[in-house]
Task: inverse folding
């Protein structure tokens, strides 16, 4: 146990200390797209802003949110859709690229000709894992709203109940993500198949669950106050400050969570490698 | 950065189609939608600026208020209203109207601030801009017109206000409401004109306006409308007929309204009004001989619909008819119910409190009566009851022979009226408060005080019907005090400012009788 903890800690510390722009770049692309959306959303008063971010919003929610300052109250929701879309679809290619670069020093084949082929094989399992995570998150959110939310509301007063619901919902979502976190890592292994990557990735997620969830929470910690502000304090920000403040807070959150996601994958990839070496 | 070749493919496979989809889905009305968003943004920030200033200072000075107009005017400067004719689809047309209304609203906000800053000229200019911009958009035109009427009334340009209200009745046919609880504000205009003349103490024109109101409602009823609008117009017509004392017409219209209400469940909200009107008609018919039947009906209205505005009115009418029959304790009981249960109903609570005080005094409870009278100007400042209550205290002391107490009460009344003027210097009631001060100085026998108060009215309230009376009173007292020059100025002012007065010929004769002498005393007019 103590040894495992020392290994997990060493992997986490090394992931943070050995931060490489080259490895982070694919996540930076996702972040760039997210920030571009926010920038366009901040400029709905221009034709380009309304023709892009505004049109995307209109496509899903109609004209009603396209008013000032109402738009900013909807923005956290729209941003989470954009975030889910980016991490699931473009992410199914970009995340394996980043993990391959992280694993390259430990796996010489990834430094050369093998890189392209293995990344090509990894995108489908990563996409399926992403979609599965989305579906499970949807089921979790529904079950949580039906079963747990009324219970929490009945047990705690207003503000405490809101904070409790937010925390419980977040813990559930992070736990689900942790289960599928190793799918892209396993999908990059040589001679893997879609089913094998999903099965082995899920098994690895279960086996290293407690360390993975620890990584997720520790790396996401700086982003959590901003997430809480976005999810619980939008009305306050719109009324007492300026509606545009919501977009700024979302942007800060997006940057921090992008770094946290990279570091979590970097630490998890190292932990997986270390456990494999240990087993061998 | 070590760029992967995969990225180029990613942009081809995802980003380009996504960007194309987004761009194409936003085509057409995108520019209008972004203009609307920009207008909303500018208007919101103008509101925010105003709120921030008002948080620091509840009563900003006129320079600050005029400064606050700038962000509102910026909306009109920075947002170009798209021509409605250029719209090629219904959605584009709706968006163009939205933009026009936002710019119009910002102009109306600028007008409001100009009026608050005592610059009605700037305000009226803004409102006229809105009228010009609105084109055929009735909603915007109506909003601008209502705002203009309010401004004209505030600045005592009553004739212009009435003229505008009359044109509004011609231009805007009443709109059918969704439910019987909503009512088009246009329907209230005829009665507003009546109330305006009553506030001016001009009963002749008030009665003429009442006749016009009846004629307008009948004209509206002559064209077919939805049952809800028809019922609302007929209910207003019945109110006019009751005020005119036209029992036969009232009875006929109440019967029609009753039939309409029983035929349509959507009109069930009219039941309290119908029942109240029926009770009132009974009062008009049999109330002079025996009030019991009418009182029972009024009481039933109040009991069956305690939350309706007609409940308080019914109790008030029951009290009035009982008081006319000298059944004071019963009347007092009803007045007490009105003042305790409907004390926030502005049309009945002030007169009910005043009448209650009169009856409390009559039944030997002067302390209670005095407390009520003292409280009226504080609780109901802009009402006829607030005008009468302070003088009623003095009259009571005079009636029982307590001369000193009466004089003290008159002095206190003057202070009360001055306080009411200070409270809101632009209120429509200020001429009436000043006239009450004239009356108080008259009661004290203070001629100089009367003349000072008349001078103040000449300075501030010229054109108001009550100022005509003040000029005549001032001329009489100035003449008695051998200040003929001053009397002459008062009468000359009367001749110039009240050319349509029915007693103009008498005033001219009176003016001719005053001998021309030296230089006129300065009146400040």
Result:
């Amino acid at each position: 146990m103590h040894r495992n903890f020392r290994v997990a800690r060493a992997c986490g510390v090394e992931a943070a200390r050995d931060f490489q722009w080259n490895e982070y770049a694919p996540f930076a692309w996702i972040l760039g797209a997210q920030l571009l959306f926010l920038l366009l959303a901040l400029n709905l008063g221009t034709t380009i802003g309304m023709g892009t971010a505004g049109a995307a919003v209109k496509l899903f929610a109609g004209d009603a949110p396209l008013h000032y300052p109402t738009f900013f109250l909807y923005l956290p929701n729209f941003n989470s859709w954009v975030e889910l879309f980016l991490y699931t679809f473009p992410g199914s290619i970009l995340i394996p690229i980043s993990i391959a670069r992280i694993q390259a020093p430990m796996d010489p084949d990834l430094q050369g000709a093998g890189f392209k082929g293995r990344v090509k094989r990894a995108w489908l399992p990563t996409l399926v894992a992403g979609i599965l995570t989305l579906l499970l998150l949807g089921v979790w959110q529904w079950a949580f709203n039906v079963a747990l939310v009324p219970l929490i509301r009945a047990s705690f007063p207003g503000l405490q109940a809101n904070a409790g619901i937010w925390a419980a919902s977040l813990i559930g979502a992070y736990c689900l993500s942790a289960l599928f976190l190793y799918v892209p890592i396993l999908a990059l292994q040589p001679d893997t198949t879609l089913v094998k990557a999903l099965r082995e990735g899920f098994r690895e997620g279960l086996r290293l669950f407690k360390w993975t969830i620890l990584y997720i929470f520790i790396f996401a910690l700086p982003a959590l106050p901003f997430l809480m502000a976005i999810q619980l304090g939008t009305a306050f920000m719109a009324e007492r400050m300026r509606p545009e403040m919501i977009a700024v807070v979302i942007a800060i959150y997006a940057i921090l969570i992008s770094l946290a996601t990279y570091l979590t994958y970097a630490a998890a990839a190292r932990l997986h490698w270390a456990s494999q070496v240990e087993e061998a | 950065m070590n760029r992967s070749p995969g990225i180029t493919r990613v942009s081809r496979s995802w980003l380009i189609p996504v960007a194309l989809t987004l761009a194409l889905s936003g085509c057409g009305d995108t520019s209008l939608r972004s203009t609307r968003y920009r207008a909303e943004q500018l208007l919101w920030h103008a509101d925010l600026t105003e709120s921030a200033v008002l948080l620091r200072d509840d009563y900003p000075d006129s320079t600050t208020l005029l400064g606050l107009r700038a962000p509102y005017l910026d909306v009109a400067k920075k947002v170009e209203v798209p021509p409605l004719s250029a719209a090629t689809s219904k959605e584009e047309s709706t968006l163009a109207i939205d933009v026009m209304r936002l710019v119009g609203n910002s102009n109306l906000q600028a007008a409001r601030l100009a009026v608050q800053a005592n610059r009605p000229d700037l305000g009226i200019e803004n409102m006229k801009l809105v009228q010009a911009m609105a084109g055929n958009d009735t909603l915007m035109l109506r909003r601008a017109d209502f705002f203009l009427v309010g401004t004209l009334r505030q600045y005592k340009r009553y004739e212009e206000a009435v003229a505008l209200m009359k044109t509004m009745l011609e231009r805007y046919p009443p709109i059918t409401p969704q439910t019987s609880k909503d009512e088009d504000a246009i329907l209230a205009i005829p009665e507003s004109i009546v109330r305006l003349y009553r506030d001016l103490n001009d009963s002749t024109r008030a009665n003429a306006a009442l006749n016009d109101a009846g004629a307008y409602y009948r004209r509206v009823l002559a064209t077919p409308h939805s049952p809800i609008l028809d019922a609302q117009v007929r209910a207003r017509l019945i109110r006019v007929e009751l005020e005119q004392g036209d029992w036969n017409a009232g009875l006929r219209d109440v019967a029609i309204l009753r039939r309409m209400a029983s035929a349509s469940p959507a009109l069930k909200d009219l039941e309290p009004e119908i029942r109240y009107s029926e009770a009132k008609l009974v009062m008009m018919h049999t109330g002079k001989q025996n009030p019991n039947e009418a009182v029972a009906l009024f009481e039933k209205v109040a009991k069956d619909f305690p939350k309706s505005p007609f409940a308080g009115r019914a109790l008030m009418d029951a009290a009035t008819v009982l008081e006319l029959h000298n059944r004071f304790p019963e009347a007092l009981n009803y007045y007490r119910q009105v003042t305790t249960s409907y004390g926030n109903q502005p049309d009945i609570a002030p007169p009910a409190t005043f009448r209650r005080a009169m009856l409390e005094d009559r039944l030997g409870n002067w302390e209670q009566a005095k407390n009520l009278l003292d409280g009226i100007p504080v609780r109901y400042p802009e009402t006829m009851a607030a005008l009468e209550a302070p003088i009623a205290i003095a009259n009571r002391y005079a009636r029982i022979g307590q001369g000193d107490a009466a004089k003290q009460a008159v002095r206190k009344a003057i202070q009360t009226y001055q306080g009411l003027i200070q409270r809101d210097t632009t209120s429509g009631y200020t001429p009436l408060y000043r006239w009450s001060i004239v009356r108080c100085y008259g009661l004290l026998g203070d001629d100089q005080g009367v003349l000072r108060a008349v001078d103040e009215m000449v300075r501030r309230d010229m054109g108001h019907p009550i100022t005509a009376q003040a000029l005549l009173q001032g001329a009489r007292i100035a003449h008695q005090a051998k200040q003929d020059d001053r009397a002459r100025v008062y009468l000359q002012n009367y001749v110039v400012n009240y050319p349509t007065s029915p007693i103009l010929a008498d005033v001219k004769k009176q003016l001719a009788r005053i001998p021309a002498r030296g230089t006129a005393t300065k009146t400040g007019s």
